[in-house]
Amino acid sequence: MSQYSTSLRTQHYEPSSHIANKMTTFRLDKNSLYMPNMRIINLGYFTDADDQTPSQLAGHYGCIQRISLMDGAKTLSTLRNANVWLSFENQLGDNQHKLNVLSPQCQAAIGYILRPDDKVDYPPPPAGSALSNGSASEVLTSTLDLRRVFPVLNQMSSGVDTALFTQLRVEIEYVVDPAAVGLSDKSKSVTIQEPTLLADMVVDPTLAAAMRKAQPSVVAFYEIENDVLVVPTQTGTNDDTPIVQSTTSTLNGFDNKVVGRVAIAKLTTDRDDNYDTNARRAYGAFSSRNYHREVLQIRKNGQNMFPSSGISNDGYKLQLLHDAWGNVCIPPFGAAAGVGLANPQGFSNDSGTPPTDVTDKQANRIGASDYYGFSVEDRVNQLSLTFQRDCTTTNIATYNWSNNGITMFVFGEVRKSIVIKGGSYECVYA
């Protein structure tokens, strides 16, 4: 830490351009050396009502549609559908860190608390996280460590050198649809707060020279890329006979790339499914639902990745997710199709379940944190996905979303490298 008084200086960068509710751009100084721990502060939004809260999973990150690290016309790193990725990535790690560190940092409400009566409580939103009523001066904002969205920064231990990256900038593209950001009331409007970029500049010339000398010729990293597919709405039956729906799609976004770990989020295509009239249900736009008797099979380079028909068991699904991504902070029954009775209108055993305000009703966050995760660790020539579910019609209108369209976001780690030679560089796939 003594470096900050002698060798480093924290630079505050206001946007070089800020197009209201659309885009923010930051430009860094030329011929400078920065530490890789760059971060965005004052990130967030306010509304026209002061009783609103951000999405419990995404927090203020819910407004980030895309974020890019650019050098002139070259893209060093970019993350599309950043809000969906961050809503998943926010849940990686242990429960206490989510409750006490991450949730206040991004104004989310991740984690859970075990009560003496065997119930599970979800944490309330961080104190003061209710959004301000039309006043930017009152906004409670968030901080985003850019190493979370630009994995290349994690590999730049020798610093980010703008003598090499001569036109370095950070671009943020926003979404302001209240249902898309997961606002607690989708009838309210959203206004983006103008953020600030913090970057630690190396001001000691001796240290800067040593770091530049230690710069490797190849910086290898895993970029987070994604592809999107849609499972269409399927009309169910009014009796006990399910309609089996099967959808197969080719994921062209990973062709001819070395792919590491994969994570899949299943979001409802119609965002109104996430609301009771205007009031948010579960995690709003970032609810990843467990659908009735769903099965997933991945076909890589002409061969099935999973035995038999694929991943059809919730326990096996969670095992694969943990093996690939480590600890995931999902509350009890968050990845289950339901608990208790076969239909979602009640419990037969409510031990370990979240409390609800309505007697004999299943909490709407049950089955709303369900993800697929697995490792590919291979070069992909072709990747395809087959998803299957059973569709029926219940007598509870609130739960008929289970037959509605699904937008599946498939995120994968893709191996890339920055190759440096003779004062210039090239960004290439491995």
Describe this structure in words.
The chain is mainly β and 430 residues long. It folds into two domains: 3-215, Adenovirus Type 2 Hexon, domain 4, CATH 2.70.9; 220-415, Immunoglobulin-like (Sandwich). Helix content is 11%, strand content 36%. The chain has six helices and 26 strands. It has a five-stranded antiparallel sheet. The radius of gyration is 23 Å and the shape is globular. The relative contact order is 0.19.
How large is the share of residues in beta strands?
Answer: 35-45%
The general outline is globular
Radius of gyration: 23 Å
Counting structural domains, the number is 2
Task: Write the CATH fold name of the largest domain.
Answer: Adenovirus Type 2 Hexon, domain 4
CATH hierarchy class name of the largest domain:
Mainly Beta
Helix-and-strand structural type: mainly beta
Give a quick account of the main beta sheet: strands, pairing sense, barrel closure: 5 strands, antiparallel
Q: Strand sequence of the main sheet, in spatial order?
A: 2-3-13-7-8
End-to-end separation:
36 Å
The percent range for helix content is 10-25%
Can you give the mean pLDDT? Answer: 89
Count the DSSP helices: 6
Can I get a quick summary?
11% of the residues lie in helices and 36% in strands. The protein has 430 residues and is mainly beta. The longest helix has 12 residues, at 95-106.
For the structure shown, list the relevant keywords.
Immunoglobulin-like, 2 domains, Adenovirus Type 2 Hexon, domain 4, 430 residues, 26 strands, single chain, 36% strand, mainly beta
